[in-house]
């Protein structure tokens, strides 16, 4: 609901508060459940949050389950995944949807402006995600495997440190397997 500290807020105030909170955090995660037929760009709160982040120049990052990249293989797939229609977007609390949509019409240059800004951000982040998923990752040797070939504890520790230090940039981010969109 449009509340802060248990008090109802106008979207303009919430827009400001949310933007300031994001600036303090320095980034925003967009949690997709999947790519095709994703719920995220159909939720007015998600659209509002991405728009607020882009309006405030806050970097965003999309997170998805590991298998999600296989869903997109063409440019048409990509544009469908990132399509935003704020006018048709929904919210669990209907009054939130109505209030945010009124804010978009009256204060944010209308639906088309918001749709374009959010779609641009989604496209950039989904492309970045897909590129990262498709980039070849060099195989790594587990530190314990290297350590098994050494003769002393000191050599094992040294090998483990070396393997760890040399492969840090090759490690993929943790897998995000669940996102709860309400």
From TrEMBL:
**Chain intervals for the UniProt region annotation (Disordered):** 152-182
Chain intervals with Low complexity compositional bias: 152-165
Protein name, UniProt field: Copia protein
